[in-house]
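Marked as duplicate of an earlier ticket. Keeping the data here for the record.
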Amino acid sequence: MKKISEIEAQAYGVYTKFDQMDNGESKFRLNCSMDGSSYCRTVAPDAGTWQNSHFHRAATELYIVQTGWIIYAEKRADQLLVQILREGDSVVFLPEVHHNIYLSAGSVIHTVKYGQSLFEQDWYASPELDELTRRINPEVLFKLL
């Protein structure tokens, strides 16, 4: 087996990107710029946090819970669906589905983004869903379910 260097990987359109988000999450991304697909390992901070509500026009997203638990919320037309996922659970969001994720303290999730002809920038804010999810107390909801 031969190791592929980062420079060689970039020739295939594959690169890494690591960020600390404003909400405290650590994101470790592997992006494939040729088709827009990507993988991301997200590690939640010591306190639980909501991500930013959003949707994609072309991409499908698969979320997998590695450790901890998450709450996902999705909005379709006038309907709001809220669900808890535990270790080993997963959820898929199709294009045009507005969604948001709450990560419990220290949780780890994996996100795979894929789809046909992904746009250069295929992330669109969903302020309406942000308004709804900010009203949810995830810790209380987790204890009820």
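See parent ticket for discussion. The mean pLDDT is 90.
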